[in-house]
Structures are given as C-alpha cells and as structure tokens.
Amino acid sequence: MNSLVIKINKADNVLVALQDLAKNKTLLFEGEQYTTVEPIPAKHKFFMQDMRAGDEIFMYGVLVGKVQMDVKKGMRMSVENTKHAAEPYFYRDVDYKWEAPDVSKFANRTFNGYHRKNGEVGTANYWLFIPTVFCENRNLDIIKESLYAELGYAVDDKYKAYTHQLVEAYENGEDISNINLAPDQQNHANRVFKHVDGIKFLNHQGGCGGTRQDSEVLSKLLAAYADHPNVAGVTVLSLGCQHLQLNEFKQELLQRNPDFDKPYFTFEQQGSQSEEQLIQQAIRDTFKGLIEINKFERKPAPLSKLTVGVKCGGSDGFSGISANPAVGHCADLLVGLGAKVLLAEFPELNGVEQEMIDRSVDRPTAEKFIKLMTDYDEAAHKVGSGFFMNPSPGNIKDGLITDAMKSAGAALKAGKSPVVDVLNYTEPATKPGLSLVCTPGNDVEATTGKAAAGATLILFTTGLGTPTGNPICPTIKVATNSALAKRMADIIDINTGPIISGEKTIEEMGEDILEYCIKAASGEVIPKAVLLNQDDFIPWKRGVSL
User: Fold this and answer.
1) Residue 159: what are its φ and ψ, rounded to 5°?
2) Closest by Cα among 425, 420, 404, 429 to 347
3) pLDDT tens for residues 189-211?
4) Which residue in 178, 234, 266, 487 is a FRET match for 392, CA 20 to 30 A apart?
C-alpha cells in the first residue's frame, strides 16, 4: 500500500488519499492520470471522473452517497457536494460461501482464564457492585472510594499527591506553576487480593422514574452483567421503593441462569437502620466474598472459549483501510477456531444491510436482522432523526462524509464469516461464530450492550482517539494510524499504522492482534483502558421519561 492513493474496491469511483495532496498534484494510478482540483487532506476522497448531480458514489463496492451538484474529476468529496444514500435491502436466498483462513498457527494455542461452573471461561476475575436504582449511586461512590484506596485498585494516587503538593505550596505562599505531576507509581503487586482483577461499580441513572419498560430492560442488562463469565461475585444495593425491585432483579437473573451460584449479597437502604449500617455491612460482606473469589486461579482454556466484541469509535478515513480490516481478519481467525465474535452498532450497518442479510445462515436469522434494523430506523425517524445523521463532526473532518461510507468501513471489523445469529439488546450469544448485536452506535452504549451479550474482550478501533472502556470486559484500543498511536500512547494498545505505510499486510496485523488478545485474556498484558479504570457504562434507554 506504499503509494499516494488507494482504490478500495474495483467498483469504486473515488480514490482515498493516503497522504496530503496539494492542489494541482498530478499522479498516475492504474494507468490513468489524475490531477487534484483542490487540496485533498490525507484520509479524504476525490472523484475519479466528472459527475453530475444525482450520480451515485460507490466505495467499498457499495452505494455510499449521491452527488448533489456537478463535480469535476479530482475534486474532493465533501458534505457540500455529497449526501448519504444506501441501497434498499431485502431477503434473497443466497448460498453464501466462506472459507476460514489458515488457523494452523493458533490451532493448539490456549489462554489462561477463569473457569466457571457453567463451562464459560472469563478473561478476568471481578467483583461487581450493582445499584438497582440511581438513588444508590452515592453509596456506591463511598464504598468504591473506601475499597479502592485500601485494597490497591485506585489509579488516582498521583493526582491526589499532586493536589496535596499544590495545597502545601499555596499555604506556604509559594509559586505553584513549577509543581509537576510525579511519575505513576501504581503497582498491582500491592493488591491485597492477588487473584481479584478488580472491583467494579455500575453507576447508572435508571431503575425508577422512567417507564416500566425501561426498568425491565435495565434489569435484563444488570442480570447479564452479574452472570458474565468475568464476574465472580455480586453486591446489589437497593433503595426499596423503586420500579426495579430486588426480587424482580433476582428473578431475571435466575431466568437467565437457573444455576446461578456466585456469591451474591443484597442490601436495601429503606430497610436498614442507617446509611452507616448499610455501608458497613456491604463492605464487610463483600470483603468476605473477595476472600472466597481470591481462591480462583487462571487455568488453560482453548481459544474457542473466547467471546470477542468488535467495535469502532472516533473513526477516521483510515478506519476502513487499516484497523477495521485487520480486526476483521482477527475475527475470521477466531471464528475459524470456534470462538464467538460480536458485531454491534446497528446504525453503522446502514448501507451494508444486504451483505449481512446475504451472509445470514438461514432465513429466520436474516429476517430478525431486517426487523430490528427497520424498527430501529423507524423509531429514529419518529423523533426527527435517522441513521443518516450518525457521522460526528470528527468523523466528517477526517473523511467519513456519509453514514453509508462509515458503515461500509465499520462492517469490515466483522471479517467475512457467515452471520450465525442476531441478538436483540441484552440477549446472550450462545452460538460459535459471528453474531450481530442490536445496540446504538454510541461508543459506551454499544460496549455496554456488547458485554451484556457475553463479550469477554472487546477490540475497539479508533482513528481520532477515545478512552472508552468497560467495567467488566477488558477493552483493547487499536489505532488506525501511527500518528495517533504516538500522540495518545497512554490509551492505545495496538497500532495498525504499518498497514498504511506498507510495512505490514492486513493479514499480518490481524495475527498480531490475535496474539495480543491471547495475552490480554491470560492477564499477561493489561490493556490501557483497564489500567486507567476506564469503566464506562451507559444503559440504552429505549423508552421515554415519565
């Protein structure tokens, strides 16, 4: 790929600039000469021929937009001259053929995970605090501050020390401008419980005040997190009078897993003597639970026990050229090894619906996808929006002009394997292979839903940089370009920039990503989002507030 431009699919009528191209830059591509009419920033696209208003624009081999005015060959695509367009979709009986890549290199590999009684294997061993209602968030914050500080899970000590230095300097009448942050001295060896990877808290704004349907969905979501293979024990705090009652949550949990047997403690504030008594008992009982789950140790498991979510956020014009296809090759390797792969973000499948339908293993799977997509899009239009409004200002600035263009690149994260299942929000993934999970495109709402479906690792590609993580699912950040990987090294784990520079192929990078996944699943490396306690959690609220 070591050139100035790239044509992604032979059917495309635009070229992508791999470097900044000056105005009147003349270049030769596949035997044809092109001269830029205006500057073309790296990641942006320019037209391969003169086009008239209404003409269709193709990229990744699919319709991604229509020209809104006459344009010249060599002119840059922009929101002024291009509007979103996508092909209609429907079920058609397609005999989809797929051959898994060569997985012999990984066939006998294992990862060291936490084996649960139901046969699932976690990549981490967490204790989880759950509030059934937002009224308990403050109590959870108090408990979190206490446990993190004393048990060795806090990551903000350097900032506390820095603030202390500023206070001392202020009190002594000294200039504070020369006081700098001390190096991070975080050391996981200082943790009291060596086999407990973290204590996590699901603060949220639900459980009461909205519709009963919202509380029911929240209950399913929280139950999915409690039953997750990365979670070893649970503490639940309730107020008492809220919509989401403790007994309803427990019923939801047992409906999801009738054999649920993890340590499970519940506390209700309106039935307690005081706030102090509630928090004291919750800390004491949880401490006892931590002693028990600290007895678990990592043991080898086949790679087929992995469930990997693939996600993109802060995408740029290189996302569909480097990081996403590399993650897609990793996804195909995982499917070839018998693992589960989860692709979510339904608004970012707009424009590639037909491909997903054609890849579905049977008609019921395809029709479930069609219904979820149609219902979701109709709901968006009812409130004056639509999938076409998905690209953010940052996406557009870095070359993603339409939602269909963004979606065509985003879908590459899933590789090319058949779609074996389609899951509504909070439904668990049960089948080996690629499953589609209905979530918003919003980074945190999507990762929240992906973990609920059972992801034990998330591969998260980004071109602009985003710190997003998840409380219970280690999230691995994959940069699309080397400049980002260098500039934001504190949040990036893997750099696929070498694909852009021609130093590595997509396949080589995909294998590197799988190697990292194996190490992260074994606790041998800790992704940056985990190190930073980047525990983002936003339930998808599908109803209205009352």
Assistant:
1) -75, -35
2) 404
3) 689 999 999 999 999 999 998 88
4) 487
